[in-house]
Specification:
By secondary structure, the protein is of the alpha/beta class. It is built from 16 helices and 33 strands.
Length: 669
Amino acid sequence: MPRPHLELLAPARDAAIGIEAVNHGADAVYIGGPGFGARDKACNSVADIGRLAAHAHRFGARIFVTLNTILRDDELEPARRLAWQLYDAGADALIVQDMGLLEIDLPPIQLHASTQTDIRTPAKARFLQDVGFSQMVLARELDLAQIRAIAAEVREATLEFFVHGALCVAYSGQCYISHALTGRSANRGSCSQECRQPFTVLDAQGRVVAHDKHVLSLKDNDQSANLEALVDAGIRSFKIEGRYKDMATVKNVTAHYRRLFDALLERRPEFARASSGRCRFTFTPRPELGFNRGGTDYFVHGRRADIGAFDTPKHAGLPVGHVVAVAADHFDLDTGDAATVLHNGDALTWWDRQGELHGVPVNTATALDGAGGTRWRIVPQLPRGRTVADLTREADLRRDTAVSRNRDMAWERLLAKPSAERRIAVDATLAQAEVDGRPGFELTLKDADGHRGVARVAHPHEVARDAARAEAQLKDALARLGDTIFEARRVRLALARPWFVPASAVNALRRDAVAALEAARAAAWQRLPRAKPVEPPVPYPDDALTYLANVYNHRAAAFYARHGVRVIEAAYESHEALGDVSLMITKHCVRYSLSLCPKQAKGVTGVQGTVRAEPMTLVHGNDRFTLRFDCKPCEMHVVGAMRKHVLRQLKSEPLTFYRTRPAATPASR
């Protein structure tokens, strides 16, 4: 029985980043195509997808293309054509949100359920498996027990889980605040990230509970310590968030998780890698050096109070020291550690007395105590006419201020260079052979996956003058696989006598055997199988859908109707839900994070019974939203209405589905 694979799934903004993700250990890469990809600023041509797929397939890695926006009726045909183009280019799977795509003529390509399908229950996961999805990413908000429950129900599809990167505060696919305020729909790939704005929180009596805090902004996901627990719960694909992230970040984070999974696979031989080759890095991965808002493992081990990045949604950096002196054109830092080196081009940050984050790029950083010292003179890069005195007056940069670094130029330069190589182990065997009736030699390369490449060359069998030296030189020459994707694990000489083989013959054998092995690997590559839906069609877990189901075209409505849904409302983007509605549904709870949850008051003398889950109000500028708390599932709703200018600016596209239960026909009775 084959061992289950553990897949490291990395993001790519473009093909170049995707290639480096593969080089740094990704078993699969997800990337956007020319359109419909839920990240409107991360589009790629079909040709670039093909180039990335060709590189990935050399290592047995896979390319998943996002086709995961909700689609209008007039977009279904362009999406269908694009799906076929991506299939022909070598894409291995499509990541899908809109169920209308399952009703049209797609190529026989594997389908994966996007995070926007909002998979939180065993029933929903089982349904998606039974309608033809081979892989699905579960909601980030699940804990280990919930994941285990889904794994017990889903036996054929692969379960995927986000392990690193930015966290959306709302359940994926259940956030409409961007569209309500700006007309930019998250489900259409154009989120305006309203959750990162500062808000003032008012209680039911209008009292200020929090002032100008980013109470909907979360820390970044980091499951580094939970990988084995997730494996044991049933996760088999481990997804890194970040199709907008730069190359350095993708290299760094992918390498970090590659190392963790390599160690895990050494401990757990019952699991196997999902692709071929081992990676070597020129750097030690450190995810904390890239953009991050602090780390949290979110709800994997249950609810925690410290999941928010309420002070700032920006990257504050890591501590590097404190200010010891301030002058007109510079300030001096003491790092307290001779190993901490500052560089021209670094960026430094600090907090003022009001809790606001400030920062400056470094023009020059000069060591004051020479090599091995801890004091540095910093000349910041400031706009013309600005001085360090302005930073003191306006941003509280003064003596004893703690300073952090959120850009390390030495680190960025390191990752700007080639920083990894990925090689597939091969065993080389040289034997004497007959080639076209003449004496010669045969070189066989067998890789770690069992593929073989064989090359032969005719050459007389001449006894070497110095047997020991000839054997050593021959083994060394055969092991020189240069800039190929292979590396020699073992070299064996299966020769009757220590023959002399000239360098020209060895080079030809090695070159042709490598080409043959690459060809054998390419010939063995197989497309991932498309799962067949269960027949007759399985019923959807509910028989009524609200705007939260994101049904934006008639094909999607037909899909749900075919699966037993009788009431189908149109997506929020159709502008039919015009009053106050839930613009976000979140597991994150502002009350809990501010220690105002009734459950937190239980057992506290003098407090128990006095704290109630009354609605609260969020205020940002002229916008006001009501926070409603649904304590049974422990969820929060951010309630509001669509701005009038959005209704005026955007074309209304009303869709008529089943707004009431259809009258029962004699056949349905």
